[in-house]
């Protein structure tokens, strides 16, 4: 393994909290980066005024040349739930615009001055502004201030979804290219069925040319807003991770979920469903428990998949709702069979990435003392990629394996894309990237929600 930097981007300040996505400028691609030196969560027990920082947005050529770099107004708080960014070509001219949430005049919690903006990606100039919907303004802060932007395709034409709410009532609006409202969906706090997830997979799961949005454990048509499937109508809680994945042997698709809150007798906390039929394939840990995060990784012989889940519980003596860890679970992703698997560090801090292209995931440490260390699937330390992994996937053309975007060693105001120059793509990784879902989620939907951490599992 020969891991080297293949691109470098110099920001205008520290990049402790960074999200990025790739933007189609028509004749070439660029990179949009939102960055700041801290993050604030809208949760009442999590919001820390000492972490409030100015939010920045920058656009780069892929050779690292900075095109523009803008500082957001003081009313834009730093964090993914306040400031999601999505590139999308709604007008169909072959050039993507940037869509983001802005607050021009209001104070940091203002709802009256919150707007959805459309920017010309190349110039960074605003070309349209619309009031941000606030149908849940009377709910608590953690519920009210979690906002998503999602895009997808309806028979080849791109649409945009704006949404509000995760844990209580949930509201979604879909917009056509002229910002005409295509449909609107409201799910009440006490309506039956699951709440939203922190990830928003977009996938044409039935092959009809229309993308569907996986909103928690619901599947919503981007064409009509109709709920096509609800995997768990009896469950009213929040699904922390939603991961569509494929069995490489049968080419059959599944949906892996894990849940926190919303205890429901007769249900499971960890589930895998048949993606198309909605039938429960297997479930583990009945009724109660806080299952937080999870991934699906190719770690077993024969390119078999492991589904990981973390169990934890809230300790009110910890500041900021820092939960205490109970343990990790490893299952055969297809059968649900217990797997005796041990990771070199806590699995929560490992990102699965196929760096060398052999079809098996390496495990990359992030947000921990071992940040940037790479282990193979057997637990052998095999390399180092740099700290603070931001993106992973086939990020730049012409390179085998999957690359990672990280912070440059010793320079917190610069990002690098790292690649294994000795990588060779095998049949599995070629098959993975033959499906448009993976590339779309890893390159377009990574500056909204927690998609940048979920996409590598696919």
Characterization of this structure:
The longest helix has 8 residues, at 436-443. It is built from four helices and 31 strands. Helix content is 5%, strand content 42%. It is globular. With 458 residues, the chain is mainly beta. The protein has helices at residues 141-144, 427-432, 436-443, 451-454; strands at 3-10, 17-24, 29-36, 56-61, 66-71, 85-88, 97-103, 114-120, 126-131, 147-154, 157-164, 170-175, 181-187, 202-203, 212-215, 218-221, 227-230, 238-246, 253-260, 268-274, 280-286, 290-300, 304-313, 324-332, 350-353, 362-365, 373-375, 381-384, 391-393, 403-407, 414-420. Strands 1-31-30-29 form a four-stranded antiparallel β-sheet.
Question: Pairing-aware structural class of the strands and helices?
Answer: mainly beta
How many β-strand stretches? 31
Low-confidence stretches: none
Total number of helical segments? Answer: 4
Q: What is the alpha-carbon Rg in Å? A: 21 Å
Write the layout of secondary structure elements.
Elements: E1 3-10, E2 17-24, E3 29-36, E4 56-61, E5 66-71, E6 85-88, E7 97-103, E8 114-120, E9 126-131, H1 141-144, E10 147-154, E11 157-164, E12 170-175, E13 181-187, E14 202-203, E15 212-215, E16 218-221, E17 227-230, E18 238-246, E19 253-260, E20 268-274, E21 280-286, E22 290-300, E23 304-313, E24 324-332, E25 350-353, E26 362-365, E27 373-375, E28 381-384, E29 391-393, E30 403-407, E31 414-420, H2 427-432, H3 436-443, H4 451-454
Antiparallel strand pairs: 1-31, 2-3, 3-4, 4-5, 6-7, 7-8, 8-9, 10-11, 11-12, 12-13, 14-15, 15-16, 16-17, 18-19, 19-20, 20-21, 22-23, 23-24, 25-26, 26-27, 27-28, 29-30, 30-31
């Amino acid at each position: 393994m020969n891991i080297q930097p293949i691109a470098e981007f110099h920001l205008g300040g520290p990049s402790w909290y960074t999200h990025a996505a790739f933007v189609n400028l028509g004749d070439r691609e660029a990179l949009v980066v939102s960055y700041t030196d801290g993050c604030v969560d809208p949760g009442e027990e999590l919001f820390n005024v000492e972490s409030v920082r100015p939010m920045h947005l920058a656009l780069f050529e892929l050779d690292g040349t900075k095109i523009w770099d803008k500082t957001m107004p003081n009313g834009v708080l730093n964090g993914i739930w306040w400031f999601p960014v999505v590139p999308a070509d709604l007008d169909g001219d072959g050039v993507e615009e940037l869509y983001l949430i802005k607050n021009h005049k209001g104070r940091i919690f203002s709802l009256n001055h919150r707007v959805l903006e459309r920017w010309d990606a190349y110039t960074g100039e605003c070309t349209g502004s619309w009031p941000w919907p606030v149908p849940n303004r009377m709910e608590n802060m953690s519920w009210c201030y979690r906002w998503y932007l999602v895009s997808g395709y309806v028979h080849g034409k791109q649409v945009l979804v704006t949404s509000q709410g995760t844990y209580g009532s949930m509201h979604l609006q879909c917009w056509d290219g002229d910002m005409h409202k295509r449909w609107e969906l409201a799910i009440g706090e006490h309506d039956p069925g699951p709440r939203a997830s922190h990830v928003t997979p977009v996938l044409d799961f039935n092959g009809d040319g229309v993308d569907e949005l996986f909103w928690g454990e619901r599947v919503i048509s981007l064409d009509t807003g109709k709920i096509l499937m609800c995997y768990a109508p009896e469950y009213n809680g929040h699904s922390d991770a939603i991961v569509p994945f494929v069995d490489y042997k049968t080419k059959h698709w599944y949906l892996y979920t894990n849940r926190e809150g919303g205890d429901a007798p007769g249900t499971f906390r960890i589930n895998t469903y048949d993606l198309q039929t909605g039938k429960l394939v297997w479930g583990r840990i009945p009724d109660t428990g806080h299952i937080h995060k999870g991934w699906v990784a190719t770690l077993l012989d024969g390119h078999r998949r492991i589904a990981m889940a973390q169990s934890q519980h809230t300790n009110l003596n910890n500041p900021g709702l820092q939960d205490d860890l109970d343990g990790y679970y490893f299952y055969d992703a297809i059968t649900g069979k217990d797997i005796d698997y041990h990771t070199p560090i806590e699995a929560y801090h490992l990102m699965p990435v196929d760096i060398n292209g052999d079809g098996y995931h390496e495990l990359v440490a992030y947000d921990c003392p071992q940040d940037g260390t790479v282990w193979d699937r057997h637990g052998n330390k095999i390399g180092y990629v740099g700290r603070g992994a931001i993106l992973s996937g086939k990020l730049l053309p012409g390179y085998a394996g999957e690359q990672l975007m990280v912070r440059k060693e010793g320079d917190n105001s610069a990002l690098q894309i790292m690649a294994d120059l000795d990588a060779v793509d095998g049949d599995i990784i070629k098959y993975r990237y033959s499906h448009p879902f993976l590339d779309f989620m890893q390159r377009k939907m990574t500056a909204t929600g927690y998609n940048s951490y979920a996409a590598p599992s696919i």
